[in-house]
Amino acid sequence: MRILLLGATGRVGSDILKLAVADQHDVKVLVRSPEQLEVSENVTVIEGDVLNESNLDKAVQGVDVIVSALSTDKTTTLSESTPMLIHAMEKHQVKRIITVGTAGILNSRTEPDLYRFESSESKRKTTRAAEEHLSVYKNLAASELDWTIICPTYLPDGAPKGEYRISEDVLPEDGREISVGDTAEFVYQTLLSNSHINKRVGISY
Length: 205
Hints:
Layout: E1 2-6, H1 11-22, E2 26-31, E3 43-47, H2 53-60, E4 65-68, H3 77-91, E5 96-100, H4 128-141, E6 146-152, E7 165-168, H5 180-193, E8 199-204
Parallel strand pairs: 1-2, 1-4, 2-3, 4-5, 5-6, 6-8
Antiparallel strand pairs: 7-8
Organism: Guptibacillus hwajinpoensis
GO molecular function, one term: oxidoreductase activity, acting on the CH-NH group of donors, NAD or NADP as acceptor
Protein name: SDR family oxidoreductase
């Protein structure tokens, strides 16, 4: 499989990269700082920025699927780059994308007409990150792409345990946290199984 991985130097992205490399997939990464990567033979590194349309176009060309583990980093990177990414995917006829979002953009269990970050379920004092991820969701939902958004709750570092709960469009009941390792593992398994098409998927222990 030919995979474009965005956010490969981040916590979740770096774990996804290790899983894909171990299975001998051809992985292309678009990164601003290539020196932060441990590169193997089947990894193609493109130095660039997701906010640069020509960089994105080059990265998307020739791949089968895109995995985005980009974070917000207190910026508008997600909301600015997603329309360009969708355009590049449509241009190069790439249909499948899996992104890592946040549990804040899942539906609230207690107030179903609201997203979690808008409801009393959320303990966050700021909604900036959730609003950025919501922009990704709305853009993907309006497209013709086969998308999936994996939505972890509190995300501490940690190796995969291999046991967790998932639920489409809402967070598993009483979900509190999920490790970086298990989140990366679930993203990777979703990629392999081509499941949860056009769904947000909550994940937690």
